Amino acid sequence: MINGIYFTTSGMNVDQKRMEVLSNNLANINSTGYKKRTASFVSYQDMLINALNKNSCLGSVSKGLIIQNFSIDLSGGSLQVTRNPLDLYVDGNNFFMVQDKSGNNLLTKNGSFGIDNENYLVNKDGYKVLGESGYINIFDHESLMVDSQGNITVDDRLVNKLKIASVNDSQDLEIANSSYYMLKGDVQVSSEKDVMIRQGFLETSNVNGISEMVEMISVMRSYEMNQKIIKMQDETLSKAVNNVGKLSI
Fold this sequence. Notes:
Blueprint: H1 2-27, E1 37-43, H2 44-53, E2 65-72, E3 79-81, E4 88-90, E5 94-99, E6 105-108, E7 113-115, E8 121-123, E9 128-131, E10 134-135, E11 144-146, E12 151-154, E13 157-161, E14 164-166, E15 173-175, E16 181-183, E17 197-199, E18 201-203, H3 209-243
Antiparallel strand pairs: 1-2, 3-18, 4-17, 5-6, 5-9, 5-14, 7-8, 9-10, 11-12, 12-13, 15-16
């Protein structure tokens, strides 16, 4: 009986985590370049077996179901026409590279860029966009042209080329936050010849609001059902405990 309550509670914890992921997806439905996330779970039995195989400390193994990782849906969002020369789209599993204020190189699909007070190409967070020759200095964005391969020209003069990161699949990426990713471990940036850059376009989020809402309703029903099951199990356990040791006279 106690095991039943435990595993039902574990199911509720899973539903709660799934709801958090779904809520985050919906919150970013209008975020440029956002990619839908899905949480995958693993049972503590599997974690125990894995720990035994690796001779790990068993005291660190969690009980119940826990999040194993977050998968990223790299399918493309729709294209939004902006006609802004500083808005860029990159196709497929290709990412723009930016450098945050701590010097970390991050990957992003959000190509909504601007020019800072030092004439560098930056994103909305003020992170400098990386080119193959370092930071990208734009002295006249009115005549800025970016071709399909990422070559940047100003007044018909080549000034730099966008540094594009190409990944094999989503397993190569770690989520930094809603807009940024980092490469896992020793995964190296590869350069693909079929990269397609489009100037004056942005990629919208690939989150489907209807499907996320349908799944959210399903998770809510599962959570409510588990609540009812726990209540029934608790009532049954209470009756069993109260009747133990009673002798009929």
